[in-house]
Structures are given as structure tokens and as C-alpha cells.
Design a protein that fits this description.
Blueprint: H1 2-16, H2 19-26, H3 30-44, E1 49-51, E2 56-58, H4 60-85, E3 92-98, H5 100-117, E4 121-127, E5 141-145, E6 153-161, E7 163-167, H6 169-175, E8 188-192, H7 204-209, E9 213-218, H8 221-229, E10 234-238, H9 243-247, E11 252-254, E12 263-270, H10 277-291
Parallel strand pairs: 3-4, 3-5, 8-9, 8-10
Antiparallel strand pairs: 1-2, 5-12, 6-12, 7-10, 7-11
Family: Belongs to the LysR transcriptional regulatory family.
Protein name: LysR family transcriptional regulator
Domain HTH lysR-type: 1-59
Length: 295
């Protein structure tokens, strides 16, 4: 247990970038914290932290060691939590992340039922259109819409979505409906960019090869959908993102290709935590809800 205490002390110093702040967080004296780190470095034979009179920074070896410490302690904490709580009712705080629009449409209703069913459980729902690092950012469950590479994380597929092209009825009445991908060269496209300026939810290279004209670029899917409904062009999205405007006939699907591969919707979490009461309850509710839904 002394080694575990030393590792937790190191993580606290690294996260606070201060011996004094880490000491306050751990309810220890700065001298105790400093001695613990010095003993850990002596035991490892490497310098984990670079100290000056004004700052404490991780060395290169310290960065690598911090990452492995976080992973290892997460496994250990999860084992204790599982052993203590397998039969317990969900309680505490469950942190979930999901894409913004999908989360609002499909995850928030599940979270609402979850909170009502378990009065001792609180939920932190982060709707973000970026890839979130579970361990580093304190996430219990991530909803991902993508083909996922093999990793140490546990994945549970709960549904699938398809990519679709759509445009407003007014735009199609004026410009005609494309029958093949190459026909997009005669149309105006709306492109959704991610935070780095790259394209999201669209095969930009194929469109560029077809000389499609991108009249408008936006950085959120909803802005692109609004522009398409206003008649500014054709947009490619995931099926759930335009389900409501398609049902209301504010958009119409074009270039429908039933052979286009579907993208899986998955729950992603650390493998040792999949049986904790809160995650188990959330997963069961998602499966039950998605069984009755089409995206």
C-alpha cells in the first residue's frame, strides 16, 4: 500500500504542478509530499519532476510514468469498486460523453429515465463533438459513432447509423436531383469542418475529385443542416442528424445508397468498470431504448 500511496502522491503533484497544493489536496505536509517523491525517484532511479523555486514540471520520463500510473490506478480502483458494489444500487456520479446532437436526441432521454429510477445517482453529461480521452478526462462512459480500433477499452455496440445526402425541396426543384456522385459537380455543397479545419461527416476527397463546388463551410453540423434547409445546397450528414427535418419534409434525401456501410454506435468504457452498478444500469437502459429506435 505504501507504493500505491507514493503513486497517488506523484499524480497529485503532477496535476497540481505544486508540492504545496498537492499537500493540501492530500491533507499532508509539504515536507511529507516532498520526501515521498524523492523516495519514489530514488527507488526508480530516474527524475520524475523538474523543480525550480517557482515551478514543478514533469520530465519526459515523468510524463510517461504519469500516464502508466493513471491507467494502473484506474484498474486497481475499479477492482475495489466492483468488489464493493456489484450488488449495490447505482449511486454517486456517472460521467457520460456523447456527440452533441446525438446526445441531445438519444442519450439525454436515457439519462432522464436513469436519474428518475435511481435517486442516489447523479449524472454529468458532456455533449462534445470531439474525441474524449476517458482516463485522462475522468469519463466513465463515452458514446462513439465510428469504427473503433482495438484498445484496452471495452466496447459495446448498441446501434448503427448511415451517412446520407440531403437538400431542401426548394433547392432540388430549382437545381434538379443528382443521380450519381459525379453529378455533385453540378451542385452546391455545404461542408462541415471540425475544430481543426478538417472536414467532418463527408468524403471531401471524393467530392473534390468530382469538382463539386463547396459554397459554404461551417463548423457545426446544426449550422450546416440549417443552411441546407434554407436552400443553400446539398449536405452529407449522419442519418440521425437529419431525421427530424426529413420527417418534416424540410429536407429530402438524395443519392440514397443502401449499400453504403453503416457506422456502429458504441458505448466505450474501461474494461474493469463495465460491471459497476451505474454503468451497468446505463448500458441496460441504452440497449432497451435503442432497440426501439431507428437512427
Amino acid at each position: 500500500m505504501d507504493q500505491l500511496r507514493a503513486l497517488r502522491t506523484f499524480i497529485a503533484v503532477a496535476e497540481q504542478a505544486s508540492f504545496a497544493k498537492a499537500a493540501r489536496r492530500l491533507h499532508q505536509s509539504p515536507t511529507t509530499v516532498s520526501r515521498t517523491i524523492a523516495a519514489l525517484e530514488a527507488d526508480l532511479g530516474i527524475a520524475l519532476l523538474s523543480r525550480t523555486t517557482r515551478s514543478v514540471r514533469l520530465t519526459g520520463e515523468g510524463e510517461s510514468f504519469l500516464h502508466r500510473c493513471r491507467l494502473g490506478l484506474a484498474e486497481i480502483d475499479g477492482a475495489f469498486q466492483n468488489a464493493r458494489g456489484l450488488a449495490a444500487a447505482p449511486s454517486g456520479i456517472l460521467t457520460i460523453t456523447a456527440p452533441v446532437l446525438f446526445g441531445r436526441l438519444h442519450i439525454l432521454p436515457v439519462v432522464t429515465r436513469l436519474i428518475r429510477a435511481y435517486p442516489d445517482l447523479d449524472v454529468r453529461l458532456l455533449l462534445l463533438d470531439r474525441v474524449v480521452r476517458l482516463v485522462e478526462e475522468g469519463i466513465d462512459v463515452a458514446v462513439r459513432i465510428a469504427e473503433l480500433p482495438d484498445s484496452a477499452l471495452h466496447m459495446r455496440k448498441v446501434g448503427e447509423v448511415r451517412t446520407v445526402f440531403s437538400a431542401s425541396p426548394a433547392y432540388l426543384a430549382q437545381r434538379g436531383e443528382p443521380e450519381r456522385l459525379d453529378d455533385l459537380r453540378h451542385h452546391e455543397m455545404i461542408i462541415v469542418e471540425d475544430e481543426t479545419g478538417g472536414t467532418r461527416a463527408i468524403d471531401h476527397d471524393r467530392l473534390r475529385a468530382g469538382h463539386a463546388r463547396c459554397r459554404l463551410r461551417v463548423n457545426t453540423v446544426q449550422a450546416g443542416i440549417d443552411a441546407a434547409m434554407a436552400g443553400l445546397g446539398i449536405i452529407r450528414t449522419l442519418s440521425y442528424q437529419v431525421k427530424e427535418p426529413l420527417a418534416a419534409n424540410r429536407l429530402r434525401p438524395v443519392l440514397v445508397d443502401p449499400g453504403t456501410p453503416a457506422l456502429p454506435v458504441s458505448l466505450l468504457y474501461q474494461s474493469h468498470r463495465k460491471e459497476t452498478p451505474a454503468i451497468r444500469a446505463f448500458t441496460q437502459m441504452v440497449i432497451a431504448a435503442f432497440r426501439q429506435s431507428s437512427f
